[in-house]
Amino acid sequence: MTAQSPAQHAPGADAATTPWWRDAVVYQVYPRSFADADGDGMGDLPGITAHLPHLRDLGVDALWLSPFFTSPQRDGGYDVADYCDVDPRFGSLADADELIASAHAMGLKVIVDIVPNHSSSEHELFQQALAAGPGSPERDMYVFADGRGEHGELPPNNWTSIFHGEAWTRITEADGTPGQWYLHIFDTSQPDWNWQNPRVHALFRDVLRFWLDRGADGFRVDVAHGMVKPEGLPDAAVNAEGLLDIPEGEVPIYFDNDGVLEIYREWRPILDSYEGERMMVLEAWIPEHRLPLYIGPEEAHQSFNFGFLQATWGVETMRAAIEKPLALADAVGAPTTWVLSNHDVIRHATRYGFPPGYRFGEGLGRAETPDAALGLARARAATLLMLSLPGAAYLYQGEELGLPEVAEIPDALREDPAHLRAGVPGRDGCRVPLPWRADAPAYGFSPTGESWLPQPEEFGALAADAQEGVPGSTLEMYRAAIALRREHGLGRPDAPVEFLEDLPEGLLGLVRGEVVVLVNTSEQELPLPAGPDGLDLADAEVLVGSAEPVPGRLPADAAVWLRRR
Ligand code: BGC
Fold first, then answer.
1. Is the pTM value of this prediction over 0.90?
2. Would the CB of 306 count as within 6 Å of ligand 1?
């Protein structure tokens, strides 16, 4: 079966003319936790610049930097107080310039995270909005409303926050009286901008130009489905209590409103007016059928496809998580993206250590005990599957080391606002600073041995230097796979994805040009099946595998790329 038609994906397929983002491998850097150059225990921009050779040697095409802007860090930097400056914890604008220039000198593109749904409550414009009275132009930059009830003592509507609790906070007016309420879909420290106001549009056009002028090759748009709220701020029929509580197939009332699409139509010509292929990738949690509205030549370039990340281990689930987005890629005229981990979800080396169908909470609790070896084996296999697919693949820092989610962080050190608001474990477990050197303090994260979150002992054996040059290590597997992906043009959309049919139970197989990809999701080692056109795959060359090779066979929970002879 051919899931993707070569004809529809051929335009610009020539490597020289294909825009880089269509088949890129993009590496997400979470600046707080990547590398700390100044020794305060918090990662920084000079630390990232110093470690760019790691990304070059990994073979990725681009890095996406999570926010490094001025911020009180109430949500790890997704609470921005100044979009056009660098937080002193991370360095200076000069450090950002140096990072971008050094990345470019190594042939790496740089994607900057833009957070347009909300700012920090410490943003100067929010402070001005608080100081100015109701009905003032300052207040109109954000979503303020009068409360309900006789004295305005009830929130303007029933909306709840993604981080739990009410989505509204009442302020005290300058004269000391209880006043209006402001909307915050996330934490109280993250007031939502009012995108009905043209001045908000103008502000963000300037922010885009600021970073494009400094050399940014693209933007990852945070909460890209969130900015425009429904007219009149009506009550929600379906409400969410935390991100995971949103009923399946439903979208909270404040997300995915059509007005959001206008913003991308406004931004696209700005990006297009710059030299090079400047791009936007959306973090939009929307129903699949809405995707074609967001992506296109006049809208955004691409959007994260979270279906692959959510697919459980198994042939049917994983195959469906590949076929659906490929079919949608046809509809939007742009290749899809693939993601297995990011800074908001439990790392995939841990997720796969639980049985398929396991109901995860928000973060990993101390009492939850994954099968770590199984999780890593399956994660490596899933990564090989992902890197064989057409479109852009997004990696999250540390997955190339096989890092697990860390459960044993003391509550007092957790910083995720969802933890602070609702007591759930939250997302700190995937944000623990990276281990670079097995024998150094803080595993080489920081010269002083400081680390804003404690690293577990198991990070020592997973440190980058412990894996470097070690055949079969996760780091070497990633390097080999990324190099082979480029060599065989696997990311390019012009070669179709053909699934092998009638395989033994538990085996997923697909063909990409001369490469055959097999994933054994069963618990038994299986003989290699016959390949396309009855080829004997036992005779094929092994390009890369996620497990120790066994001649003519594929171990359980493993994947392999074979070259047809
Ligand atoms: C980011 C999160 C952040 C939230 C609010 C998300 O989509 O990825 O890390 O907490 O937006 O900005």
1. yes
2. no
